[in-house]
Specification:
- By secondary structure, this protein is of the alpha+beta class.
- The protein has 2 domains: about 60 residues, no CATH class; about 120 residues, Aminopeptidase (3-Layer(aba) Sandwich), CATH 3.40.630.30.
- It has a 10-stranded mixed β-sheet with strand order 1-2-3-10-4-9-8-7-6-5, sandwiched between helices.
- A hairpin with a 5-residue loop joins strand 6 and strand 7.
- The longest helix has 15 residues.
- It catalyses: dTDP-4-amino-4,6-dideoxy-alpha-D-galactose + acetyl-CoA = dTDP-4-acetamido-4,6-dideoxy-alpha-D-galactose + CoA + H(+).
- Belongs to the WecD family.
- It is an enzyme of class 2 (transferase).
Length: about 230
């Protein structure tokens, strides 16, 4: 296999580990000895790359999760009500929600320490509010102004956008909040004259997949995350 190993500097500093991302491209043959120099190596492989999946499995990579990447067209819709821009004063509440909403992500045990996943997504949503990774975080609120859910968005260089995080509070489940947040994301894109909206989710997150498809999303690709651990 031709491959490139890229150290994950931000993740390494945040999690206190020595990890890298393996990209199956380039003109350099994969160096097995270089793999062994990292505590953890991540790789994302398209579902149809069966030969690569077999080869990586033989090298000790293990399946962590499947992922579906959806794309939605940005269409004229009525601006949803009860949507606010998240501000610094909302960070504490947002961190608490995010810490519990994404417990079963690929940053879970046994590859990461207990609590690392929640801590990672809590930091992600804070960065979105501050505009230091995703560019903005939008809140869905009820008539009294209490938070019901949130969505973070990032504008890409190709004239499209990507949803980073989307979560609905447990008490607000079943009230159409997910749909309202998707409409808010669409409106955010339309105001910036962006053409498409991307969003990825775990293959096992059937509720999220149903939401995106119901909103007009199309599954663009599916892939698998694999890890190789070297204690």
């Amino acid at each position: 296999m031709q491959a490139t190993l890229k150290p994950l500097a931000w993740e390494n500093a945040f999690f206190g580990c020595h990890s890298a991302l393996l990209e199956l491209q380039g003109d350099t043959p994969l160096d097995i000895a270089l793999l062994d120099s990292y505590q953890l190596v991540q790789v994302k492989v398209l579902a149809q790359q069966s030969a690569e999946l077999d080869a990586l499995s033989a090298l000790g990579f293990r399946l962590v999760e499947g992922e579906a990447d959806c794309v939605l067209g940005v269409t004229p819709v009525e601006r949803p009500t009860g949507i606010r821009i998240a501000r610094v004063e909302h960070i504490s509440a947002l961190r608490e929600v995010a810490e519990h909403a994404f417990l079963y992500s690929r940053f879970r045990a046994p590859w990461y320490a207990p609590g690392d996943s929640g801590r990672f997504y809590a930091q992600w949503v804070e960065n979105a509010v501050r505009g230091t990774f995703d560019h903005q975080c939008l809140l869905a609120v009820d008539e009294q102004g209490a938070m019901q859910g949130f969505v973070s968005l990032r504008e890409l260089d190709d004239g499209t956008a990507r949803i980073g995080l989307l979560a609905v509070l447990p008490a607000a489940q079943g009230l159409g909040i997910g749909q309202r947040l998707m409409n808010a994301a669409n409106d955010w894109c339309r105001a910036r004259r962006l053409t498409r909206l991307h969003v990825a989710t775990q293959l096992g997150n059937v509720a999220a997949l149903r939401l995106y498809l119901r909103c007009g999303g199309v599954i663009e690709r599916t892939a698998y995350w694999l890890y190789r651990e070297n204690p």
